Amino acid sequence: MTVRTDRRGFLGLAAAAGAALAVGFDAQGALAAGAADAPGAAFNPFVRIAPDGAVTVIAKHFEMGQGASTGLATLVAEELGADWAQMRVAFAPADPSRYANLLFGTQGTGGSTAMANSWLQYRKAGAAAREMIRRAAAARWGVDPAELDIVEGQVRGAGRSAGLGEFAADAAALTPPAEPALKPASAFRLIGAPDLRRLDGPSKTDGTAEFAMDVKVPGMVWAVILRPPRHGARLTGFDAAGAEAVRGFVDARALPNGAGVAVYARSTWAAIKAREAIEARWDEAEAETRSTDRMEAEHLALLDAPTYQARGEAAQAAAALSGAARVVEADMLLPHLAHAPMEPLNCVIEPLEDGVLIHDGCQFPGLTQPIVAAVLGLRPEQVRIRTVFAGGSFGRRANPTSDYHVEAALAFAALGGKTPVKLIWTREDDLAGGYYRPMAAHRVRVGLDADGRVVGWDHRIAAQSIMKGTAFESVTVHDGVDHSSVEGAADTPYAIPAMSVGLSDWTSPIPVLWWRSVGHSHTAFAMETALDMAAEAAGRDPLELRLELLSGESDDHRRLSGVLRLAAEKAGWGAPLAAGRGRGLAAHKSFGSYVATVVEVTARDGRVRIDRVVCAVDCGTAINPDIVRAQVEGAVGFGIGHAMRNRITFDNGAVEQTNFPDYEPLRMGDIGAIEVHVAPSEAPPSGIGEPGTPPAAPALANAIAAATGVRPLKLPITRAGLSFA
Amino acid sequence: MTIELTVNGRRRSVEADPDAPLLWVLRDELNLTGTKFGCGVAACGACTVHLDGEPVRACQTALADAAGAEIATIEGVSGKAAEAVRAAWRELDVAQCGYCQSGQIMSAVALLESNPAPDDAAIDAHMSGNVCRCATYPRIRAAIHRAARMMEG
């Protein structure tokens, strides 16, 4: 196991034999180093080098499978000159003053920013450590540091060689360089290497990888929450008499905020059984009571008169459309979607002498720490967070309300604040629990001239705002427009003339949240479907039409057209297909990266089989090309799987899906190989966890339209009367 | 009541209801947390363990039905197929979040023990009960083929 997550280590009690070199940054961002890295040290440790040669990278980003822990270790190892086998990772404690995401200003993972914001920071830490080790070795050997190099973990030069760890203690007494020289890309040995294996790989094949779900602390009770059947309802009372008969039942307490009843027991199973035996009463005056059909009708009605203008002028677009030779028009509906990470939400909270300790696959310590502190009447630093592996997230574990941490804190406090509590969500809790990808409606009207060129575009969106009312509102909402509702449309790289994007907010007590690729998850579908329809109406090749709109000299045009051409070439775009088969294309920029996807399907009697998926991605420097490929493979599966057959629906406000059988996930037989081609680039790394998702669904829908003539405009695609073989 | 189990070759005795799911006894009582909870209704396969060599979903296996059987979990599964599967998983970096992979590996080992050279259709059929929300399916399929080749050698 190479990812250190043990409790002793977290608490700073474990000390390797001899002094380790710790290198990080001070509060002003200057390099700092020393021999200790205990909490409270004056600098911010990013890397720790033990005398035995173990190099531990302290990951400020959590690991939900996206590979960030391996990526951060790669950056340090590259500049340090370490051997990959000596690299370890430990997750950073909650301390936004040290471990802020440089793009957020607080500690957290999201928006596909982990590598982009760490790219120079972690390399600098590694380069400083390299320089200090080199100077320490030169002093001991009595040679000029310039004679020494560090390669594959060995300090070499002047006819000598020794492991870099041997100089850790000496190096810890040196002053770090202010601006260590970073390697040029031409000298990279590990960044871009195809054969580095993930550091978390071994522990994820033998059951030893530790997730919060696996944490057990002495004296702990297990808790589940009985929540209302409709979002927005409040607890008015409950009767737990029936639970007394459940072996292992401990207690049931109302959460003080009225959100539900905490049910405590001596095991998970006992807590689940006890909850079933508890009767609760709810005040539904403020609850959601609408059904999905009505929600959809309301979204569509909102398209008639957008409240906000996100791009261009509606009048200008209207004029361009009225002068167009032909107008292509479509209304599209995209459903509420759940994230449903494999590890249902959970965390453990235990009392410390001076506060609490939370064990969590914590995505956003910068939010969770102050929010839990406020709930418990503590100062933020009294809430310590031990981050362990997260069993997926797709956005769900980062929440402006820190919902499940707050539940755990309330359940902990309601029981007296002395007993450790492990809060567990079941899958049923997860699917019914809200924080969905919002439903979205799009109305797109594309004007074409007599030659089939796009001359105007009127785009209207209706969706519930994710950001309004959260701590992110001031950053992401301008003039009423929640950028996360229109991103990918209002800022499309396509050179579309006379383009207007309008927005209306739908409102509901149902909580919504970012979901892998956020607004792009619906805007890309609308944009790429509309472009395909325009090409079809104009009798033009969908690739050629897109390239025409990307023919400028800008970075965006060069890179998005680059991946389009690469994917098309690899997929054999334009080669004839047998009857019943179809090929669809989509491309999209998100999180600074560019992805184009070609899907090939066979359709027979309304049954669709996905034959082939080919992607091209430009994410700048691919730090770990195999992880880049894996992220695109996964993001394609995520996008396609939901587009095929997933939606969360409401019956008079109550969620209708209960577990995987009625939120049927993508399964092994649904998809074959996914080819991912990584465009070579020396640009700084941009996002990779999310950008593969947006073009996946429209590429599939466009392939189906090509194969069947049926144009899926409502997701999931099963709503078009199709099924998947 | 006291129930005797044989888990990974060791005799264990637990105090629990005979109808309690094996999953929660493994995790909460025996601290064998490699076996995961994903759905509780045998729809995701994260809790797959072997009962006398056969893959079963521990969330739908009553403790009483597991008594007397040889139970193998991810922590203890061994043999040629298990070694090959683990090695192939690491070689191809199958795991992303890793939460489902215990169950995927237990299913894959059972497949290769009964069918040492499965084709894609056999893999898809056998593995369809194991959900991976990270969608690592293409790599799982490739790793099973890789493991099958390792077992030949």
Can you describe what's shown?
The complex is a heterodimer of chains A (725) and B (153). Chain A has 725 residues and is α+β, with helices and mostly antiparallel strands. Chain A folds into 3 domains: 3-204, Aldehyde oxidase/xanthine dehydrogenase, molybdopterin binding domain (Aldehyde Oxidoreductase, domain 4); 212-285 and 345-424, Aldehyde oxidase/xanthine dehydrogenase, molybdopterin binding domain (Aldehyde Oxidoreductase, domain 4); 292-337 and 436-724, Aldehyde oxidase/xanthine dehydrogenase, molybdopterin binding domain (Aldehyde Oxidoreductase, domain 4, 2-Layer Sandwich). Chain A has a 7-stranded mixed sheet, sandwiched between helices. In chain A, strands 1-6-5-4-2-3 form a 6-stranded mixed sheet. In chain A, strands 15-25-22-21-16 form a 5-stranded mixed sheet, sandwiched between helices. Chain A is globular and about 80 Å long. Chain A starts with a strand and ends with a strand. Mean pLDDT of chain A is 95; it is low at 1-17. By secondary structure, chain B is of the alpha+beta class. Chain B folds into 2 domains: 2-72, Beta-grasp domain (Ubiquitin-like (UB roll), Roll), CATH 3.10.20; 80-152, [2Fe-2S]-binding domain (DNA polymerase, domain 1, Orthogonal Bundle), CATH 1.10.150.120. Chain B has 6 helices and 5 strands. Chain B has helices at residues 22-29, 63-66, 80-91, 101-114, 120-127, 137-152, and strands at residues 2-7, 10-15, 48-51, 54-57, 70-72. Chain B has a 5-stranded mixed sheet with strand order 2-1-5-3-4, with helices on both faces. In chain B, α3 packs across α4 (101-114) and α3 crosses α6. The longest helix of chain B is centred in the last third of the chain and has 16 residues, at 137-152. The model of chain B has no long low-confidence stretch (mean pLDDT 97). The chains are: A alpha+beta (725), B alpha+beta (153). Chains A and B meet through α6 and α17 of A and α1, α3, α4, α5 and α6 of B.
